[in-house]
Amino acid sequence: MTRDPSAPGPVAALRDVTVGSFTFRVTDTGRPRGRPVLLLHGFPQTSWCWRHLIPPLVAAGHRVLTLDQRGYSPGACPEAMEDYAGEHLVSDVTGVLDALRIESVDLVGHDWGAAVAWQVAGHHPERVTTLTAISVPHPGAFMEALASDPDQHLVPPT
Fold first, then answer.
1. Contacts within 8 Å (CB) and 24+ apart, 138-141
2. Residues 58/29, Cβ–Cβ less than 8 Å
């Protein structure tokens, strides 16, 4: 499905991308040969949260992809908790890239999407040109802070 080209803003193609037994909703906006940027949303958001960032990225010449992740794409909502393990979320991202024939991306994640982005970069560094993680620190630094920073052990007042 393609948006009306006379509408304001960049033209976006809404794609259903099949990865394994799931179908993910992906919006593809901008130049088809532009440098690809993949935006991963946080919890409990959807890819709609990126709507204000897409136009400036497209104006800069990028191809911008937003992905409604597992649990948010209507065709990718398994019921079992174990189906949301990190390795599955990483495979979803790389599977979408494979289906779209994209070798590597500038990967941007917010909140839960940042946690997924860190894992994609850690397990598949060849697929990530740059990584921007918003609201979630590097996993090693986070674990170190949890283990050694006394402030992280404080319980907030109720």
1. 139/115
2. yes
Confidence of residue 133 (pLDDT cuts 50, 70, 90): very high
Q: Could you give the CA distance from residue 65 to residue 108 in angstroms, rounded to a whole number?
A: 10
DSSP string, 104-153: -EEEEEETHHHHHHHHHHHH-GGGEEEEEEES---HHHHHHHHHH-GGGG
**Binning pLDDT at 50, 70 and 90, where does residue 10 land?**
low
Confidence of residue 77 (pLDDT cuts 50, 70, 90): very high
Burial class for 40, CB neighbours closer than 10 Å (0-12, 13-18, 19+): buried
